[in-house]
Amino acid sequence: MFKLRDxxxxxxxxxxxxxxxxxxxxxxxxxxxxxxxxxxxxxxxIKNLRLGxxxxxxxxxxxxxxPITYRYFLLANPYRLVLDMLExxxxxxxxxxxxxxxxxxxxxxxxxxxxxxVVVDLSKPFLVDKHFIIKPGAKPHSxxxxxxxxxxxxxxxxxxxKLRNQEVVGLLKLKSEEQKQQTVQEFKKKPPQExxxxxxxxxxxxxxxxxxxxxxxxxxTYEKKIVLMAAKSIKKILSKSGRYNxxxxxxxxxxxxxxxxxxxxxxSQADLFISLHADSIKNGAVRGATVYTLSENASDREAAQLAxxxxxxxxxxxIDLNAESKEVxxxxxxxxxxxxxxxxxxxxxxxxxEITKKIKTHRRPHKFAxxxxxxxxxxxxxxxxxxxxxxxxxxxxxxxxxxxxxxGLAILQGLDRYFFKGQTFKY
Length: 427
Known about the structure:
It is built from eleven helices and 16 strands. By secondary structure, the chain is an alpha/beta fold. The protein has two domains: 2-174, Immunoglobulin-like (Sandwich); 177-419, 3-Layer(aba) Sandwich (Aminopeptidase). 41% of the residues are buried.
């Protein structure tokens, strides 16, 4: 069924592109659809992004090597401009820290296979005045230009509601239900072999990804990259033991909504769920690994702030949570059953005992807060902050194979302590 659907989509895409090339159809000006350059559809590169202010307008300019097919929309709470395009490569530097013309910053990356996303954070409500593509001239690249004009909050919200109620124009529209279920469907196409085995199923969740970079270290380490590297290393160690079958929520640099991470764990009938992260705070002297479990009340202010940041991952990636169904919203806000919370705490205690023997830990290695990604109703879950990217020693260690192996071995021994009490294994 899925293969047939994919073939149909590809076929429709071919005929749509053919029609465009023959008839000169342009979607430019349709602000809720994909606008398209007239060049051949190949993988392109976004090489630069510039901001400027002129006559009360804020202009966003992106240099594009190759053709580009795109659409934009706006989101409130917080104010954001979201730009989706057919998959591209990015050669962009991180956004400047200083605000320019009401633009607080931007993020970019793969949203899902075939679709890339740029999210622009806005300090106040804007409307898109114009958007267009300047074809290559003296320079060897095109330019995508978007002009923003300030507006009132009431006009902004009315505009957002209008876009939300309109049917998205174009073949590549992102249906909300498709977006909610995409990741889970990928797992359903080929049920995990682990479910047939008697081994314990562990779901490792490398946090962030794609358009959501997570924290950025002093030396430029991206959280999304370092947790994926660690997850792959830990998976090898756990799988080699023969006692655990490990499933990764993502295997590449792509964004997965929080709800889908939880859904993957439930679909896989996971025995445990481990979400991997790397923290960052203003105090650069703080370092060490920390294990978090879910609680209605945070253990301290730092834990509460961390949970608040992590729970905004969907917002950071440009997901409109106002459009979610009640069922999806409940997944994000409902507390887990008390027994699951208790088991999570027991597992966290076992992991803490082992990691303190092998790596540097926080002075309070076990904390708790209301992390949305830990809210699987029937799966014991922990969130492991492997260290602080805001500390240069931790950042350096996190990038080494030796550290990742030590962490993987500690998690393995923590799992053994949790599942196989009293048994001894060779490591």
